[in-house]
Design goal:
CATH class of the largest domain: Alpha Beta
CATH architecture of the largest domain: 3-Layer(aba) Sandwich
Bound molecules: NADP nicotinamide-adenine-dinucleotide phosphate
CATH topology of the largest domain: Rossmann fold
Shape: globular
């Protein structure tokens, strides 16, 4: 739909941002929902973040997606935070209500929605292992905890980060070293790779753990989406586990942002197809 004088504007800010899949994804969603909205990518350097937020207020930009490296700094620039963004100390979405900028973090909700949509999997009462303790791992751990997972084992190279991440799950969070995690991995209902191992152009040994421990009846999600098939996914599939890459999480976290801005149910099938076609 061509822009009009009534068109609402949303944008992704990051540095770099020219590789972002979000403009094509969000514009496909606005189009499918028949909304007079448009979405652009804006490169913003870290030093310019406060000015960018002032610009959002003065220009009346309706919504922002926040990507690297601004997720933590954006939490400080927002006027208020959702409870999830507050606990994570990071935001990936801003909603502008009349100049009041509210920071949200939709990664975890997107992840849990992707499990329900893709596998009819409800984390409530389930044993989960999360590899990683960075920004995305923290979102996944908090969301699994909020969804009622009975146990969330966190495995990470840097112990201090693992402890801080596991604390998000309260007394259901536990840190285990990789070399002691064999039985936790074998007994888990859900295993998530939220490290960056496997990104880019991985060799066969670029795996966060030996996936030969996995088996039928388990779900393995590797939230890496580039490449679509990591060595971890290939091995887990060969072991009989149900597998997913990061495409569904990416589309579902964007769907949550779309709904926060517009109040309209997101056209998730269009959004999944848009991400998949951009990564083909
Ligand atoms: N599908 C989606 O929607 C989505 C959303 C966000 C991110 N992602 C993907 O998730 C991955 C992580 O992103 P992030 O933002 O959470 O990154 P991050 O904050 O930088 O965290 C990176 C994590 O990977 C671990 N790691 C990195 N290299 C390692 C190595 N050589 N050996 C062992 N551990 C290593 C780090 O361990 P230490 O703590 O020890 O450094 C940390 O736990 C990326 O591939 C990203 O593309 C996907």
């Amino acid at each position: 739909m061509p822009s009009t004088s009534a068109t609402r504007l949303a944008a992704v800010i990051g540095d770099p941002v020219r590789h972002s899949l979000s403009p094509t994804l969000m514009n496909a969603a606005f189009e499918a929902a028949g909304l007079d909205w448009t979405y652009v990518a804006l490169e913003v350097a870290s030093a310019g973040l406060p000015d960018a937020f002032a610009g959002v207020r003065s220009l009346g930009i309706a919504g922002l997606s926040i990507t690297m490296p601004h997720k933590e700094s954006a939490a400080a620039c927002a006027d208020q935070l959702s409870p999830t963004a507050e606990r994570l100390g990071a935001v990936n979405c801003i909603v502008n209500h009349g100049g009041l900028l509210t920071g949200h973090n939709t990664d975890g909700e997107g992840f849990v929605r992707s499990l329900k949509h893709g596998f009819c999997f409800d984390p409530s009462g389930k044993r989960c292992v999360v590899l990683g303790a960075g920004g995305s791992a923290r979102s996944v751990i908090l969301a699994l905890s909020d969804a009622g997972a009975s146990e969330i084992i966190v495995v990470n190279r840097t112990l201090g980060r693992a402890e801080r991440a596991a604390a998000l799950a309260g007394d259901r969070g536990e840190v285990v070293a990789l070399d002691g995690a064999h039985s936790d991995l074998a007994d888990a209902d859900l295993v998530v790779n939220a490290t960056s191992i496997g990104m880019g152009d991985p060799g066969p040994t670029d795996v966060p753990f030996d996936a030969s421990v996995l088996h039928e009846g388990q779900i393995l999600v590797d939230i890496v989406y580039n490449p679509l098939e990591t060595p971890l996914i290939a091995t887990a599939r060969a072991q009989g586990a149900s597998v997913a890459n990061g495409v569904a999480m990416l589309a579902h976290q964007a769907a949550v942002q779309f709904e926060l801005w517009t109040g309209v149910d997101a056209p998730i099938d269009v959004m999944l197809a848009s991400v998949a076609s951009q990564l083909d």
